[in-house]
Amino acid sequence: MTWLVAEVTEIVEVTASARAITLRVPGFRGALAGQHVDLRLTADDGYQAVRSYSLADTALDDVVELAVDRVDDGEVSPYLVDVLEVGDQMEVRGPLGGFFVWRPENVEPVQLIAGGSGIVPLAAMVRARRRAASTAPFRLTYSVRSVADAFFAEELSASAGVDTTWVYTREPPPGHARPAGRLAPADLASTFGPSQDPAVFVCGPTGFVEAAAALLLDAGHDAARIRTERFGGA
User: Fold this and answer.
1) How many other C-beta atoms can be found within 10 angstroms of the C-beta atom of residue 35?
2) What domains can be seen in the chain, in order of their start residue?
3) What is the DSSP string of the chain?
4) Distances (CA, A) of 59 to 1, 112, 124, 129, 179
5) Which residues pair with 38 in a beta bridge?
6) Buried b / exposed e across 179-193, counting CB within 10 Å, b at 16+?
7) In the sheet that 138-146 helps form, which strands lie side by side, from edge to edge?
8) How many Cβ atoms from other residues are within 10 Å of residue 72's Cβ?
9) CB 147 within 8 A of CB 176
10) Could you tell me which residue ranges the FAD-binding FR-type domain spans (predicted)?
11) 148-203, pLDDT tens digit by residue?
12) Which of 52, 2, 56, 49 is nearest to 28 (CA)?
């Protein structure tokens, strides 16, 4: 798979520490919701850094949309969030990954469970569902520190056919019934149960994904129906 030259066409603030980045990539042939791409940045002295980022949307063949959260001690994300400008160029390779994907022809129930910026590939699935006018029932459980840390909050809450449940781990908004805390067995009450045989997608930091998968297995979900994607600092 060859590297393609990409140009930044739009940068939008998602949270105080995250940006949605849109790239025009001639030669890119589209992707499935849930896939990712590799980015390669080259410094003036020739030094190169490669990182993988999930696609936040898959609307057009030659457009790549990402959402990047700054990792303060990271090598690449601070540049993408704080320095990158419209018109800058980088290289893209992909799309990559064929396991953690949702296809519009699938009509089975879908349970999405996200932690923090792990919402990005799941948001791509929600957007793909809307674009395809799919009738597949979707439920989303989104664990995030506070309202200010949520990606695409308004869009996700307003997505028709997608039931969204918010889990705040540090600072819930006023009037939120659930107290602050990590994802717990009681939070699965709002998800599709094992008897409904949903396709389950879990994405987030490694610790979150492992904990969520364990809760799902304890609740009786088939391990073969649980697809996970995790990330950590490089």
Assistant:
1) 20
2) 4-96 (2.40.30.10), 110-231 (3.40.50.80)
3) ---EEEEEEEEEEEETTEEEEEEE-TT-----BT-EEEEEEE-TTS-EEEEEEEEEE--STTEEEEEEE--TT-SSHHHHHHT--TT-EEEEEEEE-SSS-B-TT--S-EEEEEEGGGHHHHHHHHHHHHHTT----EEEEEEEEEGGG-SSHHHHHT-TTEEEEEEEEEEPPTT-SSPS-S--GGGGGGSPPGGG--EEEEEEEHHHHHHHHHHHHHTT--GGGEEEEEE---
4) 21, 20, 9, 11, 37
5) 52, 93
6) eeeebeeebbeebbe
7) 162-171, 138-146, 110-115, 199-205, 226-231
8) 8
9) no
10) 1-102
11) 999 999 999 899 999 999 999 999 999 999 999 999 999 999 999 999 999 999 99
12) 2
Euclidean distance between CA atoms 43 and 51, whole angstroms: 14
Per residue in 120-153, pLDDT tens?
Answer: 999 999 999 999 999 999 999 999 999 999 999 9
In sequence order, the 6+-apart residues with CB closer than 8 A to the CB of 55 are 31, 33, 34, 35, 36, 37, 64, 65, 66, 95, 120, 121, 124
Block residue for tokens 């090598």: 75
**Token representation of residue 125:** 């699935």
C-alpha 229: how far from its chain's center? 9
- Matching residue, tokens 């949903």: 198
